[in-house]
């Protein structure tokens, strides 16, 4: 089902400051930036590697406000790993299969994600405390 780790999402207070840190420290490059109003984030993708199913990235996330998923996470836990995203060939099919195994789906159908991807989240309490995201890359990235 999982083809690769698509990205690790990291919650931060200051996106520009954190981008500069990752560029300086790990020599990573930002390949995309986006404001995703639906998810309540301003985000940047830093490229790590390319694989058969698509790329893998670090995703830096700054909340658009306190009453958003990342805003609440920062208030409760501070900066750090917010979620892990796995690449799947078909997110709709993966949701059906995983939901059928009793895992709570935070999204019943795919939403818009970074760089034209289709995404859906699984409840962290059903996945060992890890907020889990499914990512279907757009055709051009696959
Ligand atoms: C909350 N919990 C987490 C967590 N957020 N556990 C692990 N990782 C996280 N990120 C835990 C809380 O500590 C709590 O546990 C329990 O889950 C319920 O949390 P809550 O505080 O009561 O509820 P909310 O309202 O904060 O909701 C949490 C939930 C929400 C995960 C359901 O954040 C959500 O729907 N997230 C999915 C969407 C999302 O995160 N979007 C932002 C990234 P206790 O033990 O205290 O009960 S968007 C993105 O990443 C896009 C742009 C992309 O990748 O392309």
Task: Provide a quick synopsis of the model.
This protein has 142 residues and is α+β, with helices and mostly antiparallel strands. It has one domain (4-141): 2,3-Dihydroxybiphenyl 1,2-Dioxygenase, domain 1 (Roll), CATH 3.10.180.
Give an overview of the whole structure.
With 142 residues, this protein is of the alpha+beta class. The chain has a single domain, classed as 2,3-Dihydroxybiphenyl 1,2-Dioxygenase, domain 1. The chain has three helices and eight strands. The chain has an eight-stranded mixed β-sheet. It is globular. 30% of the residues are buried. (S)-Methylmalonyl-Coenzyme A is lined by residues 9, 36, 39, 41, 43, 59, 61, 69-70, 72-73, 82-83, 85, 106, 113-114, 119, 121, 124-125, 129, 131, 133.
N- to C-terminal separation? 15 Å
Q: Helix-strand pattern, N to C?
A: EHEEEHEHEEE
DSSP strand count: 8
Mean pLDDT across residues: 96
The small molecules bound here are: (S)-Methylmalonyl-Coenzyme A
User: What is the CATH superfamily label?
Assistant: 2,3-Dihydroxybiphenyl 1,2-Dioxygenase, domain 1
Assess the beta-strand content as a share of residues.
35-45%
Q: Helix coverage percent of residues?
A: 10-25%
Number of helical stretches of at least 4 residues: 3
Shape: globular
CATH fold name: 2,3-Dihydroxybiphenyl 1,2-Dioxygenase, domain 1
Task: Give the total of domains.
Answer: 1
Contiguous runs where pLDDT drops below 50 for at least 5 residues: none
Structural class: alpha+beta
**What is the top-level CATH class?**
Alpha Beta
Family: Belongs to the methylmalonyl-CoA epimerase family.
Pfam families: Glyoxalase_4
Protein name: Methylmalonyl-CoA epimerase
GO molecular function: metal ion binding; methylmalonyl-CoA epimerase activity
């Amino acid at each position: 089902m999982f083809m690769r780790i698509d990205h690790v999402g990291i919650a931060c207070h200051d996106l520009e400051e954190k981008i500069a840190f990752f560029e300086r420290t790990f020599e990573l490059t930002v390949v995309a930036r986006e404001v995703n109003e639906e998810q309540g984030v301003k985000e940047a993708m830093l490229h790590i590697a390319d694989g058969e199913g698509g790329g893998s990235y670090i995703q830096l996330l700054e909340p658009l406000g306190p009453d958003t998923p990342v805003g609440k996470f920062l208030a409760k836990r501070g900066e750090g790993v917010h979620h892990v995203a796995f690449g799947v060939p078909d997110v709709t099919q993966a949701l059906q299969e995983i939901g059928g195994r009793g895992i709570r789906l935070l999204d019943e159908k795919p939403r818009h994600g970074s760089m034209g991807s289709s995404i859906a989240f699984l409840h962290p309490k059903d996945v060992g405390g890890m907020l889990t995201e499914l990512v279907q890359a757009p055709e051009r990235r696959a």
